[in-house]
Amino acid sequence: MRLNKLKDFIREEFIGLNVLVYRCGIKSLEGIYGNIIDETKNTFVIETGNKRLIVPKAISKFLFFYNGYIIFVDGKLINKRPWERIKIKIVKKV
Which of 27, 37, 42, 69 has the highest CB neighbour number within 10 Å of its CB? Predict the structure, then answer.
């Protein structure tokens, strides 16, 4: 995915997207796959079947499934309120 598309994705609404918790500082949350049903500044609420789990963003890495793409995002990048993500500046590292 091109950098411009990544910027657009970061600004999207995450509620309703499918997500996989790829890595997490809390080992019991790794590998969780489900639908994001709520978002706060520091957490996602992910519904997996009949459970709702609260996953901290700052210590996690996520795989989002979005429009046929699988997008890897470090939670530190999105550890903001949803309306604050619009202002995020992403710089390409060489």
Answer: 42
> Domains of the chain, with CATH numbers?
3-87 (2.30.30.210)
Helix and strand numbers (H, E) in the chain are 1, 6
pLDDT tens digits, one per residue of 8-55: 788 888 999 999 999 999 999 999 999 999 999 999 999 999 999 999
Q: Any idea which residue has 């939670």 for tokens?
A: 75
pTM of the model: 0.84
Spatial CB neighbours of 70, under 8 Å, sequence gap ≥ 6: 63, 64
Output b/e per residue, 79-91; b: 16+ Cβ within 10 A.
bbeeeebeeeeee
